[in-house]
Amino acid sequence: MGFFERYLSVWVGLCIIAGVGLGYAVPGLFESIAALEYAHVNLVVAVLIWLMIYPMMVQIDFGSIKDVGKKPKGLVLTLVVNWLIKPFTMALLGWLFFKGIFADWVDPQTATEYIAGMILLGVAPCTAMVFVWSHLTKGDANYTLVQVSINDLIMVIAFAPLTAMLLGVTDITVPWDTLLLSVALYVVLPLVAGYITRRSLEKKKATTSGQNAGTDTRAIDALVNKFKPFSVIGLLLTIVILFGLQAETILSQPQDIVLIAIPLLIQTYGIFAIAYFAAKRLKLPHNIAAPACMIGTSNFFELAVAVAISLFGLHSGAALATVVGVLVEVPVMLSLVWFANRTRHWFDGAN
Length: 351
Known about the structure:
By secondary structure, the protein is mainly α. Helix content is 78%, strand content 1%. A two-stranded antiparallel ribbon has the order 1-2. α5 (73-101) runs parallel beside α13 (286-297), α6 crosses α15 (317-342) and α7 crosses α8. The longest helix has 34 residues, at 176-209. It is globular and about 70 Å long. The mean pLDDT is 86. It comes from Alteromonas mediterranea. GO terms for molecular function: antimonite transmembrane transporter activity; antiporter activity; arsenite transmembrane transporter activity. It is found in: Cell membrane. Belongs to the arsenical resistance-3 (ACR3) (TC 2.A.59) family. The chain crosses the membrane at residues 7-26, 38-54, 75-98, 114-133, 145-167, 179-197, 227-245, 257-279, 291-312, 318-339.
């Protein structure tokens, strides 16, 4: 483990502070970055996330993907957590806190919008950053790809009706441009780039050795190691930008940020605990268990933000709740990555 990776939590904390400070000191810079978006997908952040995802895509052995179906437990766990547990626990926690515990601190209309924003986060499983969390926990790249792909297919069908049911609204319109662009940027393009890179390395091995093309793991490992510093830099810059873009909100509405963050933190850690316990009971190997739990825990925040804005408006409580979800997710998920890596021995000997 390199120097930067060893002290990643320290760099993340410094980047959060730097992001808020820079966002307050030079708001014009972050306004320019915010303007570089299409379909609610910020293109600068997209490039940085792509930089993080690409090394993992290079490691995918496309010939082995067909074998993923022989180990269905990890897929079942992901689907159950994402679609049968997470949306409903998020709705329950939102109602419990903003209609109960925090009722005296938030007016009823704002409370309803906060709950709606939380529900939108709960109904949108992660598409992009989960590749990063999987990579950091040494997850099975082939299995993670299949898990994400299946969730994306289900999301196309289930997002609108499930959101409508939980929000009590009938006219949910899926922002297809956001959904399709995100899938293209975070799954399709890096996957194609990874495939081309892997094939190039295989052909190079065949040319230099005179043998049939095959997987040159040493060359792939060397390439991934070269990309590690860039991936870490991409992650840290993403944190600076996300917190810089929301610096004004963080500083002007600190109480509301804290109120929204509390149930989101309980939801995130709670869902991970449920999934991790289930993975242990299912005797999943760690390289499948960790990514499965990360997928069930993290959110597709671009989609949630886009729907919140379209339904409730740019300056609504729902939009704010989805933004808080973005701010909470990265540092919390990194803490779960640390926990998953520290508990790898729990899964030793799993079938």
